[in-house]
Specification:
The complex is a heterodimer of chains A (464) and B (53).
Chain A (H helix, E strand, L loop, with lengths): L2 E4 L4 E4 L6 H6 L15 H12 L2 H13 L3 H29 L3 H4 L1 H4 L5 H7 L2 H18 L5 H11 L8 H29 L3 H5 L10 H17 L2 H4 L5 H30 L4 H8 L2 H35 L5 H15 L8 H24 L22 H4 L7 H14 L5 H22 L2 H13 L1
Antiparallel strand pairs in A: 1-2
Helix pairs in contact in A: 2-10, 2-14, 3-4, 3-12, 3-14, 4-12, 4-14, 4-18, 7-16, 8-9, 8-15, 8-16, 8-17, 9-17, 10-14, 10-16, 12-18, 14-15, 16-17, 18-20, 18-21, 20-21
Chain B lengths: L1 H22 L5 H24 L1
Helix pairs in contact in B: 1-2
Classes of the chains: A mainly alpha (464), B mainly alpha (53).
């Protein structure tokens, strides 16, 4: 384990815990920054994000918003507000990944510390999403084929959808390239059907009124919740980007378009069907077979994404706490096992409370990292005593000897309290801003209390 | 209906297991075989328990 000199590009690659570049690449660079020579063009990353952004559950969220917010205008306000927040959130987190070359769990080391990184890394485990995705898809199939129990589908798909997890990142791109065209075709067909079948076409849908269960602000938070966890982990994919410009392009063309397309379609479909049940919606539209194929491919790509994310973050938690290296494929297997056990327990019924909770809480975790990267790291108040710490290698002793940033604790507590407790405005934005503000204030406060000085002393001792 | 569910479940678990063993690299064949047998048993047991509850 050590360094490798890449003479053609004059880049020294710190291999960290790996014995060779090949080993690091096989592990998808889970524990080290991605070397520049292994990074991809923006179009490659865009395809991954386009596929990852388009999830079956967005259609579910869309049909629910159409009916739950009272009318389609409110629903679209919720979609656009949420998409704007998520697009910016993806880009900001993506830039951090592109700059450091590290996945989200690893790049959180700069803000949280080499031991404190277990806080964001643990939440990042996407096992919950893996289970919910498959539970929703299984319930759709059960509506279409009532003779077969949804639990059978849950067990089979939780097993099948971790297949690619044993192979790695490149295969996910291939799957996403197939999923994207299918989705676009089915979405367009669905919209055309609504236009033809609804008296007055799509515009007439905006005149419909439903009982209001969710305010626009609540709708925005729910929309944010559909992708906040994924957006906070944008670094996992954008660490493969070559530049900030590539990150923006991929965020805009990949994530934003894919996301709005899906959830917007769901809103239109839901407005037509007048039900929040996606399976019934497909039946009413007469696109059951096509829709099932689309959901099958989409759920597979998204589940691969969820298992992949878990497999990049959970090993870091294990390594930090127990000092043991955990192979990624066993983490993927663990996702499958958990899914098999609990997906059949009607988890899909908790979808809306689940995404509302995520929408309120996850931005808080990301807010700390954003504040650290874009603001505090350029000042003398950074908890490690370093300035421009993101220029350093995440594996360097000069960073690793800083264990826990205590300024993150009050920022997280107050951020979560604000997002869940304050009912005015959008919970996700409230929580994010509160976390950023408290983190900045605590960093400054701890600097003047001498906490930063203690950390900085470690740097001096290292130099001696 | 219950019999159909078991048939679909068992056939599905078997097919996926065969698929995995076909795809598995040579050096991990033994591990894959153990894992697929384990997941087969787990799948059936979980379904039985969830059906009873």
């Amino acid at each position: 384990m050590g360094k490798v000199q890449n003479s053609s590009q004059e880049q020294v690659i710190d291999l960290g815990i790996y014995n060779s570049e090949a080993e690091a690449q096989a592990d998808d660079f889970a524990n080290i920054p991605v070397p520049m020579k292994y990074r991809h063009k923006w179009s490659h990353i865009m395809f991954v994000w386009f596929g990852a952004a388009m999830v079956a559950q967005l259609y579910q969220a869309g049909v629910y918003l159409a009916v739950g917010t009272g009318n389609l205008t409110n629903a679209f306000f919720s979609v656009l507000g949420g998409a704007l927040f998520l697009g910016v959130f993806v880009a900001l987190n993506g830039i951090i990944g592109q700059k450091t070359g590290c996945n989200c769990a690893l790049s959180s080391t700069f803000a949280y510390g080499s031991k404190g990184v277990v806080i964001p890394a643990f939440h990042i485990a996407d096992i919950g999403w893996y289970v919910v995705n498959i539970a929703i898809f299984s319930s759709i199939l059960h509506e279409i084929t009532p003779a077969i129990d949804a639990r059978v589908y849950c067990i089979l798909f939780c097993y099948l959808f971790i297949t690619n997890g044993y192979i790695g990142f490149n295969q996910m791109v291939v799957l996403n390239k197939v999923a994207a065209p299918i989705l676009i075709i089915v979405s367009v067909i669905g919209l055309v059907k609504v236009q033809m079948m609804n008296p007055g076409g799509i515009p007439a849908l905006f005149d419909k009124v439903f009982p209001t269960e969710l305010s626009v602000a609540g709708g925005i938070t729910a929309v944010i919740g559909t992708w906040s966890a994924g957006a906070s982990r944008a670094a996992d994919y954008f660490r493969y980007a070559k530049s900030k410009k590539d990150t923006f392009l991929a965020s805009l063309c990949g994530f934003a378009i894919g996301f709005v397309l899906c959830i917007g379609c769901g809103v239109i479909w839901g407005g037509f069907s007048e039900t929040a049940n996606i399976a019934k919606t497909l039946m009413l539209l007469g696109i059951v077979i096509l829709g099932s194929i689309m959901f099958f491919v989409q759920t597979w790509t998204t589940s691969e994404h969820s298992a992949y994310i878990t497999s990049t973050s959970l090993p870091l938690v294990v390594q930090t706490i127990f000092g043991k290296k955990l192979p990624r494929r066993f983490v993927v297997l663990f996702c499958g096992v958990v899914g098999i056990i609990i997906a059949g327990l009607d988890i899909q019924n908790y979808y809306v409370p689940f995404i509302s909770f995520l929408g309120a809480v996850i931005p808080v975790l990301g807010g700390v990292v954003i504040a650290d990267f874009f603001i505090i790291s350029h000042t003398k108040f950074h908890w490690t005593g370093h300035r421009n710490i993101y220029e350093m290698n995440v594996l360097s002793k000069d960073l690793q000897h800083h264990k826990l940033n205590i300024a993150t604790i009050p920022a997280l507590i107050i951020g979560v309290w604000v997002s869940l407790g304050i009912k005015i405005g959008v919970a996700a934005i409230n929580g994010l801003l509160a976390a950023i503000l408290v983190y900045i204030l605590c960093s400054i406060l701890f600097f003047y209390l001498g906490v930063t000085k203690r950390e900085a002393r470690k740097n001096i001792l290292l130099d001696q | 209906m219950n019999l159909l569910n078991y048939v679909v479940l068992i056939l599905g678990l078997l097919l996926i297991g065969v698929f995995w063993n076909f795809l598995s690299p040579k050096e991990r064949k033994r591990e894959t075989r153990i894992v697929t047998i384990g997941l087969f048993i787990l799948g059936v047991v979980v379904y039985i328990i969830q059906s009873l509850v």
